[in-house]
Design goal:
This protein is an alpha/beta fold. It is built from eleven helices and twelve strands. Helix 4 (91-107) packs across helix 6 (145-158).
Length: 310
């Protein structure tokens, strides 16, 4: 099956693809090649209606990753094109980034580094005082694969109390993990020392965290978003951080990406920004590439897709 790889993928995954598929990789690709595509592998490449129309023989769009907001799902469905993703491949990498960001915020690592680079006159300055995560309360907004993994890792490592807000999960699932389910978001925000967001961007989650929600959080709390931009109202977060209404915050997914170096949040010493880097580990890149290839192979072999979106 003629397969176009429309974004760079890990070299190990690329070799895996070449052994199993008839591959045209992104380094040798221009728009003239699109019409030959029977399958595509995409990371961030936008599969719009216009691009799909340039691929009359397309049978599958294999997403290298989880989020499919770069794919026109409705149009793909209308054309009978299978869309798959790799939901298990990157979840550990994202979960570990959440923990890294939480520790960074709690101990002001990035801010301390910038102070050292600028020159310090004494050790242990009071303004760099952080807090321990041991025994703190973690609030998970969303209990999917990544949220569950974040909660279980923090509970095991730091003996945290884990709260969950997720309208689509039930009490028994939370109890199985040793978590406590909150019936409303306000309760979670009021009680948590660290809040981590792991939900998709939908009309219900856009601006889920705005000025009102931020005002409910503890003054010494940390807010982390590694899911999608626009879930947090970024200007409301900026004002909360500037006024020290929160201890700190970290975002890996911004409303506009790539994020501008002039973004107001980047002026806050109690803020950490990363460039949608959650799944960007060698381990996850290999797994995502291989699993995307495997979905195309399954289609060739008339086998059921492992993770079908449409």
């Amino acid at each position: 099956m003629k397969t176009l790889i429309l974004d760079p993928i890990d070299s190990e995954a690329l070799e895996y693809a070449k052994e199993r598929l008839d591959v045209v990789d992104w380094t040798a690709l221009d728009s003239k090649n699109y019409s030959i595509a029977e399958a595509v592998i995409v990371r961030t490449f936008k599969m719009t209606r216009e691009k799909i129309d340039q691929m009359p023989n397309l049978k599958i769009i294999a997403k290298h990753g989880v989020g499919v907001d770069n794919i026109d799902l409705d149009y793909a469905k209308s054309r009978g094109i299978l869309v798959t993703n790799t939901p298990h491949a990157n979840m550990n990498s994202v979960a570990e980034l959440v923990i890294a960001l939480a520790l960074n915020c709690a101990r002001k690592v990035s801010y301390a580094h910038s102070k050292v680079k600028g020159g310090v006159e004494k050790n242990s300055p009071f303004e760099l005082a952080g807090f321990e995560m041991q025994g703190k309360t973690v609030g998970l907004i969303g209990l999917g694969r990544i949220g569950t993994l974040v909660g279980s890792k923090l509970k095991a490592a730091f003996d945290t109390d884990v709260l969950v807000y997720d309208p689509f999960t039930n009490e028994s699932i939370c109890k199985k993990e040793g978590f406590r389910k909150c019936e409303d978001l306000d309760q979670l925000l009021k009680e948590s020392d660290i809040v981590s967001i792991s939900v998709p961007l939908t009309k219900d989650t856009e601006n889920l965290i705005s000025a009102r929600e931020l005002s409910l959080m503890k003054k010494n709390a940390i807010l982390i978003n590694t899911s999608r931009g626009k879930i947090i109202n970024e200007m409301d977060l900026y004002y909360a951080l500037k006024q020290n209404k929160l201890f700190g915050a970290a975002i890996d997914a911004f409303a506009e990406e790539p994020v501008s170096k002039d973004h107001p949040l980047l002026k806050c010493n109690n803020f950490i920004g990363t460039p949608h880097n959650g799944a960007n580990t060698k381990d996850a890149l290999i797994r995502m590439g291989i699993e995307a290839v495997d979905e195309i192979v399954r289609l060739i072999n008339n086998e059921k897709a492992s993770s079908k979106i449409v």
